[in-house]
Amino acid sequence: MKNLMLAVALSVALIGCSSKEGPSTRSTPEAPAAADVGAGKVLAEQCKGCHGLDGRGAAPAIPDLAAQNERYLLASIAAYQEGKRTHAALRDMAEHLSAADIRNVVGYYASLPPLAAIAGQEVAIFRPYENGKALAAACTRCHGEDGNTTTPGIPSLAGQQLRYFVVAIQEYLNGVRRTDPMHSLLRPLSKLDAESLALYFASQTPAQRVAPSVGDPAAGEPLTAVCGGCHGPHGVSTDTATPNLAGQDAKYLVDAIKAYSRTRRHESMLIFVRDLAPGDIEDIAAFYAIQRSRAAESGQTFVQDLVAKCDRCHGANVDNAAMAVPKISGQDKDYLIMALRAYRDDRRASSMMHNMSLPYSDSIIESVSSIYAGQPAR
Ligand code: HEC
Ligand code: HEC
Ligand code: HEC
Ligand code: HEC
To answer: What angle do CA 248, 156, 256 make, to 5 degrees?
Structure first.
């Protein structure tokens, strides 16, 4: 097999001056010349160890190629050649095939029928909101039903910002925040579970609080002018990494502000609260406690809404689109996860700004990938 691949690669290198043509001509996925599917099938012998002769990825994270959009397959191989996608084996292979060979082998895979799902290997759909809701049962005795607490000193979690929540959990886990009971309680929490909890709580509606017995909201308000730039004018933040303060338990706010001078390490927060007098802190806390807050996310429909957006390009009309859009229905789940993380983390260039449309957590990527992987291939 190895020898055969080598022989083919060599013969291609010998005859194939055409394989040295500039990458720019290859990158245009416009109407490819008709492929010789029979010749393509012979070439697919070089690919079958990973992509099968039927176009099914041989192992997790290897993409299925069967029935894939032909223009997209051409564009993706050009992306390996041009270094826009990095995968040593693919790049090497793409460089050793002539333009005609690539057209033929791609034509072969595109001509194959869509793959049927393998019986007994149904994809389990991952639902972060429901997962978070189930996990939250362990939190409600302290944080209240739906994340609204009534116990002084314990923070409400309802409506809290997504990324802030996840960072807070990480800080309890890695010991930056050493406050018990949270610190010892959260030990065995995976990243997907932490993100699921964050989505669940972020989606709950914060309750309106009555004025606390300590502190004067009217005296606190002017002191918050400097805080509003980050936390929002009334403590409802627009940045998912900056916590909402509106509607939070007043005693907890006092403790948290003081914690920045003692245990929590955040220079950007510390400089704003370091010089506040204890009475000022109580007034500020009283002001924020009675502000009306709102849910930061809509977790119940988050994934559905997202999939509706993706379907505008990746949906049923994918073959007719003006641009070369890949089919992702029925694609291998691990491959989809890998591709989406690569876009998000800027490891794979995207013509469609997937990195911008995907500021999403691993749990959202897991969920969307499971949904598409679980759909019938077309
Ligand atoms: C050693 C295993 C291996 C072999 C052999 C191999 N591939 Fe791949 N192929 C992969 C993997 C893994 C990926 C995903 C790489 C990535 O992360 O971009 C991939 C991706 C692709 C893609 C992009 C698909 C997409 O959905 O974006 C195309 C097209 C492709 N391969 C075509 C071929 C062809 C044609 C051959 C034979 C000439 C071949 N590959 C041989 C493993 C292999
Ligand atoms: C035994 C009571 C208790 C339980 C159970 C509990 N917590 Fe907490 N939680 C606390 C207390 C007290 C604090 C404040 C700790 C501090 O000052 O850092 C807190 C703080 C937090 C914070 C930080 C909030 C903020 O605004 O910074 C998060 C996030 C959190 N808890 C999540 C959870 C989750 C998720 C669960 C369930 C898996 C949970 N907690 C279970 C008592 C509890
Ligand atoms: C430059 C932006 C910025 C300014 C200005 C700022 N904060 Fe913050 N604040 C943050 C960020 C970011 C965090 C989250 C830090 C972390 O992860 O612990 C935070 C966290 C907090 C927390 C902890 C909330 C919780 O749920 O545990 C409190 C309370 C707080 N800020 C109060 C204030 C007050 C009061 C002011 C004004 C006197 C202020 N902040 C000004 C950015 C800011
Ligand atoms: C405006 C059209 C458009 C939208 C909207 C869109 N995509 Fe894409 N997608 C593309 C195109 C074009 C490509 C291939 C070229 C590229 O990498 O940019 C692609 C590539 C992909 C790939 C790689 C597939 C492969 O075989 O390697 C995945 C996975 C993907 N998109 C998932 C998504 C998800 C999930 C969403 C919704 C959050 C989404 N896309 C939204 C057009 C779109």
So the answer is: 60
Pocket of ligand 3 (CB under 6 A): 155, 164, 167, 224, 226-227, 229-231, 242-243, 245, 253, 256-257, 264, 266, 268-269, 272-273, 284
Domains and CATH numbers, the chain: 1-115 (1.10.760.10), 128-289 (1.10.760.10), 299-378 (1.10.760.10)
Q: Is the CB of 169 under 6 A from ligand 2?
A: yes
- pTM comes to 0.88
Tens of pLDDT along 301-354?
999 999 999 999 999 888 877 889 999 999 999 999 999 998 888 888 887 767
Q: How many residues does the chain have?
A: 378
Q: Is the CB of 313 under 6 A from ligand 4?
A: yes
Which tokens is 98 given? 């002539």
Q: Which of 142, 184, 257, 293 to mutate to test the pocket of ligand 2 (most atoms within 8 A of CB)?
A: 142
Count of alpha carbons within 13 angstroms of residue 2, beta-carbon side: 0
